[in-house]
Amino acid sequence: MGTAIVLLILAVIIFFVIRSMVKDKKNGKSLQCGGDCKKCKGCH
Fold first, then answer.
1. Full 3-state SS string of 7-43
2. What's this model's pTM, rounded to 2 decimal places?
3. How far apart are the C-alpha atoms of 18 and 16, rounded to whole Å?
4. What is the tens place of the pLDDT at every residue in 4-28?
5. b vs e for 11-43, b when ≥16 Cβ sit within 10 Å of the residue's Cβ?
6. What is the C-alpha separation between 40 and 21, in angstroms, rounded?
7. Which residue ranges does UniProt annotate as crossing the membrane (predicted)?
8. Cβ contact 30:24 at 8 Å
9. Separation between Cα atoms, residue 40 and residue 34, nearest integer Å
10. What phi, psi does 40 have (nearest 5°)?
């Protein structure tokens, strides 16, 4: 029973992390690009 509860909690946390990443991606934010092209040496 304890294992099921831990797995459920982890699934909820992973769901919210992925949802946050998708929301950020839709808003133009991402882990790879901070949007500050002056400081970027490798993009575009």
1. HHHHHHHHHHHHHHHHHHHHCCCCCCCCCCCCCCCCC
2. 0.61
3. 5
4. 999 999 999 999 999 998 888 787 7
5. eeeeeeeeeeeeeeeeeeeeeeeeeeeeeeeee
6. 21
7. 6-22
8. yes
9. 9
10. -85, 130
Residue with tokens 């991606």: 25
Two tokens, residue 12: 């909820």
Amino acid at site 1: M
d(CA 40, CA 2): 47
The count of C-alpha atoms lying within 13 angstroms of the C-alpha of 23, restricted to the half-sphere facing its C-beta, is 6
Cα 31 to Cα 27: distance, rounded to the nearest angstrom: 12
